[in-house]
Amino acid sequence: MNIQRFDLETNDLSDQTSLEIPDELLGYFQSPWLTRFIPSVYIAVFLISLPLNIIAIIIFLFIVKVNTPAVVFMLNLAAADIHFVSMLPFIIFYRFSGNNWVIGEGMCRFVTAAFYCNMYCSILLMSAISVDRLLAVVYPVRSLLWRTVSRAWLTCLFIWLLSIAGTVPLLVSNLTVHLDQLNITTCYDILSIEDIQIYYFHYFTAFISTFFFVPLIITTVSYALTIRSLSSPTIESNFKKSRAVLLCVTVLCEFIMCFGPTNTIFLVYYLNFDKPFGSSLYFAYIISVSISSISCCLDPLIYYYGSAKCKKYVYNLMCCDKAKAGDRDTGRNTSSTIPTL
Asked: Which of 45, 222, 263 is closest to 139 using CA atoms?
């Protein structure tokens, strides 16, 4: 996010802009928060999330099999997470290097666009999972005609195309700025006030509303109706009730805790871009962005609670009692069941 806003001067020799900023603002780019803490968080996310999501994809493809809509959505969510964390090494290197981007304007655009594309693709996929869960629980019979694997793949394709299209403006914008005093080149840390007024204000307000707040409303309503349905006394399998409720709680917490602060601060900033902001908003944003990346580590919980077969395999993989795990997953009462994902 570009909390710092200045009138930029274009270098005649290239499309890169150069800039001198006030001395009191140089501390932003030398702060340990940016050069040590934030990249350390990204390293932890990368080391935890990458193997977990790779294992999840292997389980979905070769153990669980992609034969239900829920598995299709979770498989694509794992792929989005892997793509997301694959961008983190570039950001880690950038921050550890004192916020000096040395691999070119083109890579800055690509990494920034990919970062946002995969973040919002994950949000849309989690929203799709919530709707699929609602249909499976509340309309288990009537939704059989709607909840097909082919339609799930078409939905995922649409989500990917929508997410990619939403980041095209970032691919055609100049995102690097050279700071003369520090002799560093920033990547997407500074924008000119003119660009914000003419272009980014409309782009990001529409982008955030479409890719976060609308999915948040859909997800919240879907899980509220799902939990309400699960409270029915006709559903007697307490284990399946708790598994479905834990899935709802996990996704909602991920929305609120991981993605909520980032998008709220983002929207507040662009709705008030003409007002001065202090360093507190800048630090709040970069910290919230690093927190949002933790969602990649939480998504395996969605796979765990969202698929009975995946849960059973993980139990077996961890050398748990197979018979016990099987009994708990199938449930002893067969008079009323919740469709498995």
From this structure: 222
Between 238-253 and 105-138, two packed helices, what is the crossing angle to 10 degrees?
150
* Nearest CA among 61, 85, 71 for reference residue 129: 71
Cβ proximity of 55 and 23 under 8 Å: no
Fold annotation for 4-322:
Rhopdopsin 7-helix transmembrane proteins (1.20.1070)
Query: Can you list the alpha helix ranges (DSSP code H) found in 167-294?
Result: 168-171, 193-195, 201-208, 214-230, 238-253, 260-271, 279-292
CB 332 within 8 A of CB 324: no
Every domain of the chain and the residues it spans: 4-322
Whole-angstrom Cα distance, residue 212 to residue 74?
Answer: 19
Nearest to 274 by CA among 220, 202, 217, 194: 194
The pTM assigned to this predicted structure is 0.82
What are the tokens at 299? 């998504």
CA nearest 77: which of 300, 294, 339? 300
Q: Is 180 helix (H, G, I), strand (E, B) or coil?
A: coil
CB 267 within 8 A of CB 208: yes
pLDDT digits (tens, 9 = 90+) for 129-164: 999 988 888 888 888 888 899 999 999 999 999 999
Q: Would you place residue 280 in the very low, low, confident or very high pLDDT band (cuts 50, 70, 90)?
A: low
* Length of the chain, in residues: 341
Amino acid letter, 280: S
